[in-house]
Write a structure and sequence with these properties.
about 130 residues, elongated, single chain, 434 Repressor (Amino-terminal Domain), mainly alpha, 2 strands, 6 helices
Length: about 130
């Protein structure tokens, strides 16, 4: 952004600032950018605190990439582990249809259910369940 070149004028004893529309728009953009950056810093700080406290986990790159493309976390982790729903169903005792519903978001699993699935997938349960639950 270019430099601001405000003009100061006095109107009835009150000092006013005069900016061009372009300068005003650029100033608003700076404010929005600063607010967005502050929010991102707060999110980063919270994530780092969660990691240090063991409440969060760094996902494998493959899992993160699948999630960014819209795949559910559970499906992305299962695919990353190279397992089918049928294989997970066999290890957990859940039906393949139930697992499909969990992966598609049609149903929500309890923390205990997700821990059982994590065990079947041979992953740290923190990947699927907040350890505070």
């Amino acid at each position: 952004m270019g430099e601001l070149n405000p003009k100061f004028i006095d109107i009835g004893g009150t000092e006013m600032v005069l900016l061009t529309k372009a300068e005003f728009d650029a100033l608003l953009q700076r404010i929005e950018d600063a607010e967005e950056n502050a929010e991102l810093v707060a999110i980063y700080d919270q994530r780092m605190a969660d990691l240090k406290a063991g409440y969060d986990v760094i996902l494998p790159v493959e899992v993160s990439a699948r999630c960014r493309k819209g795949e559910s976390l559970l499906r992305a982790v299962r695919n990353w582990r190279g397992m089918t729903q049928a294989e997970v169903a066999e290890k957990t005792g859940f039906t393949q249809g139930y697992l499909s519903d969990l992966e598609s978001g049609k149903r929500e699993g309890t923390a205990q259910t997700l821990r059982m699935i994590a065990k079947a997938l041979e992953i740290d349960p923190v990947m699927l369940v907040d350890p505070r639950e």
